[in-house]
Every structure is written in C-alpha cells, then in structure tokens.
C-alpha cells in the first residue's frame, strides 16, 4: 500500500463506487406523530466494485487471496518403460484417470522399410541428421521412439547398427499418444481401446476390458513447460492501494481516483466453464489509512478540466 510503483489491472468489466451513510434518529415524545427532532450520523462505508477481465498472475493473486506466486517449471525430458502409474505412485483402476506427473506428453513414429532386426531399448541415429531416439516399440513397417534429440529426415537411414540394422522412413509423425506395451515391449496397447489420454495435462485412463495389465509399461517424451501457481485463500486478507484514471480523450472532466487502502474480496461466481469471457468480480472496502494526514485518510478525487 505504501509503494510508489503499481501493477496494471488491465481491462475492467465495469467500475462502480458507492458510499453508504447510516444515521440514528431521535424522535419526539411530545406528540403522536413522533417527529424526528435530531438525526446523527453513526457510520460511513465506502466501497468499490469491478470485474477483472485479464487473468494475469498478479490479478489472480489479488482476487483469489493468494499469498505468493510460485514457480514449478517442467524441463523437457522423457519416460522409458515405467510401469503405468509409477510416476504418480497410483495404480490403474478401471475407467478412472490417474496423473502421469508430466504435461504435454507425446511420442514419435517412423514409418518405412526396416532392414535387419530392430530391438526395443536400442538407440537409433539418423545417418544424415544425426538425430537420435530410443526404440519403445517395433511394429510392422514402423517404430515408435522416445528421448528424441534432433530432427529425423525422410529417406535417411535411421540406424541401430550402421548399414546393417536400420529403418528408412517414408513418414515421420509426432503422435498425440504415448507408447503403452507389455513389459517386454512386444505387444502394443491401443489408445481408444485399452486406454484414453489427456495429453496436455498428462492423464491416462484404463478402459475396462481393454487389455492393459498391472505390469504394462509406458514410454513418452514431454515438453518444457513454464508453470506458475498460487495457493488460493492462503492469505488472511489482501489490502491494496488502487488508482483509477479516466482516459484523456473521454468527454468531460478528466478524473483520477486514489484509494489509499482497500480490502479486496472476491464477490460472486468465477465461471470456469461458460460462454463468453471469464470475469472475476471483485469488491473492495475502503479503509482508513492512518498514515495519511488528518482528513485525507480515505481517498482523493482529482478533477482536471480538458484543455
């Protein structure tokens, strides 16, 4: 509140200011009309309300009563032949999702002519591109690889053993899939039949009767993701100094409203699913700021006529 630098709230969905004045009345006892002979002000309350359109880190921290913005980034890497659920230490259950523990998961498929006998667990290298990958499954006329470094090229020999054991790809795909096989890597489970996936958030669901067993293993790559989070409602209260300014090109008198001390509260629903823009409805109670001079403890309104 005492700072000299300010974050930008961005686009707002309305901005309202209101004052409530409460009074006590003294009634006459000399006649039946009970006329008011004295009215004394007992309370004053000022508040502001607005809708936050922009879900910036600081806006969410303020409105959701978070006490800090935390960072937990995901570095790009891979998983190779882990038992399903091992990353999250959660066993598979029929028709229920579990968390793989990584975001943005994927695998790579090379389709083409296979020369020799490619084996699961071996590293293959492009003889032109020098890209590398680890074989997670060998199918009929294709292989699936993870831990891919570099970019394989169509038509090059992708070699397990130079000029002896290799695949010459005619197609290279980044799959919206992971590789789920038996422990030996010889039997591939099919997405949509044995399991479903949420690739973006790394969830897998075993389909009842689809053929997955407890000892099956998974392999996949996952991308680097910058991730920040807050623990909502972890702050006892949030108080801010708020300044609202009118645009200089608006008609009428330019105005600047400075509220020295405002207690923030989230008010109403925040639509996580719905039509149109999500808007955080925020209310704030204007509190007395005892650090300000007498008579100036609440807020200031500046009026500047247009030139």
Task: Explain how this protein is built.
The chain is mainly beta and 307 residues long. The chain has two domains: 12-23 and 40-69 and 230-304, no CATH class; 77-222, no CATH class. It has one helix at residues 57-63, and strands at 12-27, 36-52, 70-71, 77-83, 97-99, 105-115, 123-126, 132-139, 142-149, 158-161, 165-175, 179-181, 195-198, 203-206, 217-222, 228-229, 238-245, 254-266, 280-286, 299-304. It is built from one helix and 20 strands. The radius of gyration is 32 Å and the shape is elongated.
Question: What are the SSEs and their pairings?
Answer:
Blueprint: E1 12-27, E2 36-52, H1 57-63, E3 70-71, E4 77-83, E5 97-99, E6 105-115, E7 123-126, E8 132-139, E9 142-149, E10 158-161, E11 165-175, E12 179-181, E13 195-198, E14 203-206, E15 217-222, E16 228-229, E17 238-245, E18 254-266, E19 280-286, E20 299-304
Antiparallel strand pairs: 1-2, 2-19, 3-16, 4-15, 5-14, 6-9, 6-11, 6-15, 7-8, 7-10, 8-9, 10-11, 12-15, 13-14, 17-18, 18-19, 18-20
Give the overall shape: elongated
How large is the radius of gyration?
A: 32 Å
Average residue pLDDT? 92
Order of helices and strands: EEHEEEEEEEEEEEEEEEEEE
| Derived structural class | mainly beta
Number of distinct beta strands: 20
Query: Helix fraction?
Result: under 10%
Strand content: over 45%
The number of distinct helices, counting runs of at least 4 residues, comes to: 1
Overall number of domains: 2
Please mark out the parts with pLDDT under 50 across 5 or more consecutive residues, or reply none.
Answer: none
Query: How would a textbook summarize the main sheet?
Result: 6 strands, antiparallel
* Cα-to-Cα separation, first versus last residue: 32 Å
């Amino acid at each position: 509140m005492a700072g000299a630098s300010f974050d930008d709230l961005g686009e707002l969905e309305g901005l309202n200011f209101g004052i409530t004045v409460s009074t006590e009345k003294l009634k006459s006892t000399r006649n039946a009309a009970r006329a008011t002979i004295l009215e004394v002000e007992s309370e004053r309350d000022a508040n502001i309300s607005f809708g936050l359109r922009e879900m910036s880190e600081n806006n969410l921290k303020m409105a959701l009563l978070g006490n800090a913005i935390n960072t937990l980034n995901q570095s790009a890497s891979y998983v190779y032949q882990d038992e399903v659920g091992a990353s999250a230490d959660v066993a598979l259950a029929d028709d229920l999702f579990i968390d793989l523990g990584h975001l943005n998961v994927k695998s790579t498929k090379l389709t083409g002519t296979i020369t020799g006998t490619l084996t699961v667990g071996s590293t293959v290298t492009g003889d032109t591109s020098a890209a590398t990958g680890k074989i997670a499954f060998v199918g009929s006329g294709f292989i699936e690889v993870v831990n891919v470094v570099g970019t394989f090229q169509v038509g090059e020999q992708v070699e397990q053993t130079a000029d002896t054991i290799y695949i010459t790809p005619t197609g290279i795909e980044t799959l919206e899939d992971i590789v789920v096989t038996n422990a030996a890597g010889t039997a591939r489970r099919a997405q949509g039949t044995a399991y479903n996936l949420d690739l973006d958030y790394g969830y897998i669901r075993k389909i009842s009767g689809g053929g997955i067993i407890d000892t099956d293993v998974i392999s996949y790559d996952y991308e680097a993701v910058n991730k920040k989070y807050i623990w909502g409602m972890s702050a006892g209260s949030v108080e801010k100094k708020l300044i609202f300014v009118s645009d200089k090109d608006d008609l009428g008198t330019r105005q600047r409203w400075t509220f020295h001390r405002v207690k923030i509260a989230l008010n109403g629903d925040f639509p996580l699913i719905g039509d149109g823009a999500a808007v955080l409805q925020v209310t704030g109670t204007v509190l007395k700021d005892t650090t300000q001079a007498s008579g100036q403890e609440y807020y200031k309104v500046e009026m500047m006529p247009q030139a």
